[in-house]
Known about the structure:
alpha/beta; Rossmann fold; seven-stranded parallel β-sheet; binds NADPH dihydro-nicotinamide-adenine-dinucleotide phosphate
Amino acid sequence: MRIDAGLLGKSVIVTGGSRGIGRAIVELFADEGSDVTFFYRDNAKAADEVVQAATATSRKVASEKVDVRDASACAAAVERVANRCGRIDILVNNAGIIRDNQLAALEDDDVRSVLETNVGGVFNMARAVVPHMIVQRAGKIINLSSVSGEKGGRGQTNYAASKGAINAFTRALAVELAPRKITVNAVAPGVIETEMSQDVRDAAGDVVLSKILLRRFGSPEDVACAVWFLASDYANYVTGEVLHVDGGFKME
Ligand code: NDP
């Protein structure tokens, strides 16, 4: 069996690559020899650190400050990547936010910003990238979902709705793009050790751990490996799937 994952020289876009899971994804693809461009929203210092660490080891990593809620900014940035790299092989829609609260306490902006980022951002990026992949008759799109897309969680109506939408979006786009030889899949992490989950881990870490079959929180690298698989040639016959990386959390 061939052991080359087929990622060498691939042009990859990762949204939200400056921290957490996105950073681990950027670094894994860069280690594979891919040409990676990641987008971030505000944190230029974190983004620069990722680029500098990659450059120091001769990896190909570039960053762009692109808010995924801004459709025209996404389109323009995707064109810049396409012009520079000649093609776009892989899109990882990773950027996401959380604004947990019980329904009655949610502000309008808590609902709007979560849906605009987690769902709107995925639409904006897919609509910018897919025309390139259609011309190429090749491409792989991987969306970051969450265990919350299937498993109910207190105070997560806005976030759960956004991730349930991502699961549905993934299946529908997989149907649409299969004739064009483009695969669309999602990865649904459980509780992963990043800034996003810090409050939950601080407030109820032991309770949550008791519900995770493998009795540990996930690492960003655990999730990056699943994204790597779905982007690799090993997953050429996989589309429309939501792969849970949650230590068995959704089963408890
Ligand atoms: P972090 O909060 O650690 O990092 C979020 C990243 O997304 C940052 O790079 C941030 O940029 C970027 N980002 C946020 N909003 C935007 C925007 N509007 N435009 C562009 N970039 C943006 O998140 P995680 O690494 O924990 O999560 C990554 C993905 O995994 C998300 O989709 C999340 O929903 C999902 N997930 C995470 C889980 C967890 O336990 N951590 C569990 C299940 C799913 P900047 O640095 O500039 O702010």
